[in-house]
Design a protein that fits this description.
The protein is an alpha/beta fold. It is 44% helix and 13% strand.
Length: 422
């Protein structure tokens, strides 16, 4: 449910501590884009109808379980049957969506209307007089909820023994087709999404200079902002892929071989989501357990999970919040369209702010349990590589898995940019 439209001034003042940014007006920013409609922002509150919750629980209670192959590894052919039965028990007997919904609504949620699309986002203003704006974009399967584990450390570092002048204004969007953002009529390209999110930052929120961060699809979208917008200082990314680029050394050849192995053993999801996503969507839309199994298998396999136990790093309630957000918004199907739209789409719907720079400013944050990662030599060729950090722990969902490490790395990257005058 949305409320009355807010001006940019109301939004910036409404988060308390920081004064208004001395920036050009949203109207002037819109003019830079060539006269497009201005970005309007409204507050948003999560309110799932009780009848929908009752229906979901009834379907979970009456799930028709599949037959599982008897193998030593219960995850060999997909989500473990015994694990998913444990999920069912937790879902029915312990998990309380209304309690979690109230906790999620404690964050300031908004929707920005950009070129007819509503983009959902959380906007947490940082401490001090001049917090650094940062937009943190998820991938697939991903959610704005992942970054909430780190948001207080980013926005209010003084609560953790870090000077408040290292604070961020944190913007966490949901990609089109995910959560509470609009579902596109057809698959949308990363390039178009990066332009939309740049408009959110500049025209919607009035930030003249910001940092973009992302992993998975969020990495490509963040690099797009750094390349095409003079307002984006740099991108910090936690995934580097050079698939299709001729390897130029042993490390790059090893990365290509690892990609081939992973694609052959773990890549079936990618192929079907790129080619026939609608067929999957019938199961996702009808069966909450099918959605949960599809997601849970990725959160286990792609993470740095000690002792094969996802709950050793993830709060069970927050993983369920992600699952329930996909289910209650019927967005797991449309989220898979990112794979179809990844390399194409109607980019000219929204023009680039400038001609893309050949080598945008990029820093790399490497979580070691990411299944595939191209080496530093590749990143040096394709980016103006500002930093490369090899971290001690974490995987595909870095901020969700290791929020303390993630927040520290973002502060280090911001400090590096300031030191270089970027």
């Amino acid at each position: 449910m949305t409320g009355p439209t807010l001006s940019r001034r109301t939004i910036l003042e409404g988060s308390a501590a920081a004064p208004l940014l001395g920036l050009a007006s949203a109207a002037a920013k819109a003019a830079e884009m060539g006269g497009g409609e201005s970005v309007t922002i409204t507050p948003f509150k999560i309110e799932v109808p009780q009848a929908q919750l009752d229906d979901i629980l009834n379907r979970v209670r009456n799930v028709n379980w599949p037959v599982s192959p008897q193998t030593p590894d219960p995850w060999e052919y997909g989500a473990s049957l015994s694990f998913m039965k444990d999920i069912q028990d937790y879902w029915l007997n312990e998990y309380d969506w209304r309690e979690q919904e109230a906790k999620l609504n404690e964050y300031p949620h908004f929707k920005a209307n950009i070129e007819g699309y509503d983009i959902h986002f959380v906007h947490v203003k940082g401490s001090g007089t001049n917090p650094q704006p940062i937009i943190i974009t998820h991938g697939w399967p991903g959610s704005y909820i992942e970054t909430l584990r780190a948001v207080d450390r980013l926005a209010h570092p003084e609560n953790y023994g870090v000077p408040e002048d290292m604070a961020f204004d944190v913007v966490i969007p949901s990609l089109p087709g995910f959560a509470y953002s609009s579902k596109p009529e057809r698959p949308m390209s990363q390039k178009l999404i990066s332009r939309m999110l740049d408009r959110l930052m500049v025209e919607g929120l009035g930030y003249d200079r910001y940092i973009a961060q992302g992993g998975d699809f969020g990495a490509g979208i963040s690099v797009g902002m750094a390349a095409e917008s003079q307002h984006c200082k740099a991108a910090n990314i936690s995934l580097v892929l050079g698939v299709g680029s001729p390897p130029q050394n042993d490390a790059e050849r090893a990365a290509q071989r690892q990609w081939d192995r992973v694609y052959n053993t773990e890549g079936a999801y990618q192929h079907i989501q790129r080619t026939k996503p609608l067929s999957l969507s019938y199961g996702f839309s009808d069966s909450p357990m099918a959605s949960a199994a599809w997601l849970m298998e990725k959160y286990r396999t792609w993470s740095g999970v000690p002792n094969d136990n996802p709950w050793s790093i993830y709060p069970k309630s927050q993983v369920m919040n992600i699952i329930m957000t996909y289910i209650t918004t019927n967005s797991l199907g449309t989220s898979t369209w990112m794979y179809t739209g990844a390399n194409g789409g109607e980019d000219d719907v929204l023009p680039a702010r400038r001609e893309a720079v050949e080598k945008p400013n990029v820093g790399v944050t490497h979580f070691p349990s990411e299944l595939v990662f191209w080496p530093e030599s590749y990143a040096e060729r394709v980016y103006n590589l500002l930093s490369w950090t090899n971290l001690p722990a974490g995987g595909h969902f870095g901020a969700f898995e290791q929020p303390i490490i993630f927040a520290r790395e973002m502060r280090d990257f911001s400090r590096l940019l300031k030191g270089r005058g970027i």
